[in-house]
């Protein structure tokens, strides 16, 4: 049986500075996982943003991912408990995340990390928030922000089934999925939409790239660090993820794309004692990409992969998985 996900080593609170309506000291909790082994120097930092549609979830939802990252990279993992809608709708969760990223970097010595070796990761809403946070860090002034500390260098982004385009209606997204019956329920997505985008913004006006980061302009795409995208076959977000990957490819940006066949949105999130083997495979693929980013510069090659539809007993562990990867993802 697989071991239980590790508990955080510690937690701490950071200040909210960017949200004028509800800022203050010690508003945002950050959970931290530190590898048990003795460090030989500053470690990389992997920041995680949990899913839950900006209305549910907490930092410890990333526990299994944190264990995979520590085991593969010997990195310190930080999971941000950004504040949730409906009390804290868009853009508060993104602003909380930017605040936390800056203050984690500021405390680099405290946690034994290198602030210039940071990777952002996230799941669903958290993946969207990770990408939106990166956008703000590039040009905060264009959104009316004044950052309290210098922005750290982000070495890469790991995005599991992100929300990228709010200008597309939910019915359109469901229609694009080959199994609309397996997508998130209308009741849940209606609740998410009403809570997170409040006051309501007309669909055609949801082009703010903090809200729809997949619509970022081409010049901003050129600035992106390497990206690892993991999408699910039976997910209403599959098509927009693939469109974003196509934009990355068209501009020659280093990225890897995987589609988990036969699975729906959030397939890795339920906390069973024995998770599906594909979870170990995909977490392994993501950490392999991250290892490459931390060790060398990337060129513009990219790869598009699909996870095989297999049973628990027949699929190999990530360490034994033989696949063809791009030059930018080789280790």
From TrEMBL:
Keyword terms, alphabetized: Hydrolase
Pfam family, one: Abhydrolase_3
A Gene Ontology molecular function term of the record: hydrolase activity
Alpha/beta hydrolase fold-3 domain location: 46-267
Gene3D superfamilies in the record: alpha/beta hydrolase
Protein name: Arylacetamide deacetylase
Organism whose genome encodes this protein: Escovopsis weberi
